[in-house]
Design goal:
The protein has ten helices and twelve strands. The chain binds S-adenosylmethionine and iron/sulfur cluster.
């Protein structure tokens, strides 16, 4: 039987779900959450594991092939490992990836490998303990590094996410890029977005993707462009002879919307067809109202039938409610 394929109203294939399993986090990265934290979602409002599993099964039937588990910090949610194990059994789900801050993950890596977790994105904005603390407001640098080593040891694909921030981690661009010489990791430098949980409006973004590339080229004049994987949000490069790659993600400039293949579901079940939209409908409510699979299909098809063309249009549509929520409530 032909594999199902799901498209939006702009003809873009949709085969990738990012599921935020919690909005809670044990770090306080200043670009994501205020120091005092955010008003966390009540436990009863969170989707249950059973609801999330059903949802994924329905979406896999419709054409989703890859799921990224994110948050908040996925591993602060109790019983995350049995949930991942359940997901790993879903027929037709080709890839399960995870985005984590790596503080609680090191000891779990062999089990993740056994489950067939394909790839882990580790957030690591600095290779310097003090700068790491300044950014995350928690002194757990060693734990993250242990997770990195464990992932490499188990040969799980690793991408390192580093948000580029003036005055905070500019030295780390060079240190992280150097790491790619010897370690087989994808270092990804991300434009800072205004999702800091403080309702803050976007400051002028100085370190946009062009500036980041100019900065890198100044250090590495022979930086080579490498072919980007399909649907990649990063533009990828390599220092000649390096084991790993260096990517730049224009998350705020939104240069990659034309091939966007992803949808997002927040911890309380809100479907977002774009990172910048305010949410389209609540899947959890449908599930709790005993929607049939066919009704769920219809709801997703209808949402994808009026998807914004790009992140700017999505943001415009929500002009009454400008972005400023915490990324931990969306999943990044
Ligand atoms: N807690 C996990 C972690 O940090 O990897 C998963 C969730 S976190 C929200 C997912 C990704 O979003 C992280 O790589 C983080 O750096 C990124 N992120 C959070 N807030 C951001 C912002 N304001 N601008 C750009 N990236 C952001
Ligand atoms: Fe937590 Fe990740 Fe947000 Fe940092 S970026 S506060 S680790 S959810």
């Amino acid at each position: 039987m032909d594999k199902p394929r799901l498209f939006d109203n702009h003809g873009r294939i949709i085969n990738y779900l990012r599921l935020a399993v919690t909005d809670r986090c044990n770090l306080r990265c200043f670009y994501c959450m205020p120091e005092e934290g955010i008003d966390y979602v009540d436990k009863d409002d969170l989707m249950t594991y059973e609801e999330m599993e059903r949802l994924i099964r329905v979406l896999v039937d419709m054409g989703i092939e890859k799921v990224r588990i994110t948050g908040g910090e996925p591993f602060v949610r109790k019983d995350m490992m049995p949930f991942l194990q359940q997901l790993s059994q879903i027929e037709g789900l080709k890839k399960i990836n995870i985005t984590t801050n790596g503080t609680l993950t090191a000891g779990l890596v062999p089990e993740l490998k056994k489950m067939g977790i394909h790839s882990v994105n580790l957030s690591l904005d600095s290779l310097d303990r003090d700068r790491f603390f300044q950014i995350t407001r928690r002194d757990v640098f060693d734990k993250v590094m242990q997770t990195l080593e464990a992932l490499l040891e188990e040969k799980i694909e690793v991408k390192i996410n580093a948000v580029v921030m003036e005055g905070k981690n500019m030295e780390d661009l060079f240190l992280l890029a150097e790491m790619s010489r010897t370690r087989p990791v994808g270092i990804r430098f991300i434009e800072e977005m205004p999702f800091n949980g403080a309702g803050a409006q976007s400051p002028r973004l100085f370190w946009d993707h062009r500036q980041i590339l100019t900065y890198l080229r100044a250090h590495y004049p022979d930086l080579e462009k490498v072919q980007d994987p399909p649907f990649s949000t990063s533009q990828n490069y390599r220092i000649p002879g390096a084991a790993g790659t260096i990517g730049i993600i224009a998350a705020y400039s939104r240069t990659f919307c034309g091939t966007c293949n992803r949808i997002r579901i927040t911890p309380q079940g809100m479907l977002k067809t774009c990172l910048y939209d305010a949410g389209v409908f609540n899947v959890r409510d449908l599930l709790r109202n005993e929607a049939t699979d066919a009704q769920l299909h219809d709801a997703f098809l209808s949402a994808l039938g009026s998807r914004a063309k790009n992140g700017f249009e999505a943001e415009q549509r929500r002009w009454e409610n400008p972005v400023g929520e915490s990324m931990s409530t969306i999943g990044g």
